[in-house]
Amino acid sequence: MDNASQINLVRRIEVKRQSSVGKSVSLTKNEWQRTKQLTESY
């Protein structure tokens, strides 16, 4: 919480586990849509 303005600050992250270094991580369609909806706080 930012005490000066009394605003709750939210920061979102998507946590994925990688099986090995250098490999791509994929998101499901629902995860991708949610990240687009919440772009400002990701």
Give a verbal description of the structure.
It is a single chain. By secondary structure, the chain is mainly α. 21% of the residues lie in helices and 0% in strands. The chain contains one helix and no strands. The longest helix is centred in the C-terminal third of the chain and has 9 residues, at 29-37. The radius of gyration is 15 Å and the shape is elongated.
Provide the descriptors you would attach to this structure in a database record.
1 helix, single chain, elongated, mainly alpha
Which structural class matches the secondary elements? mainly alpha
User: Roughly what is the average pLDDT, rounded to an integer?
Assistant: 76
Tell me the distance between the termini. Answer: 17 Å
Write the element-wise H/E pattern from the N-terminal end onward: H
Tally the helices: 1
- The percentage helix is 10-25%
Radius of gyration: 15 Å
**Which term fits the overall shape?**
elongated
Summary?
By secondary structure, the protein is mainly α.
Indicate the topology.
Elements: H1 29-37
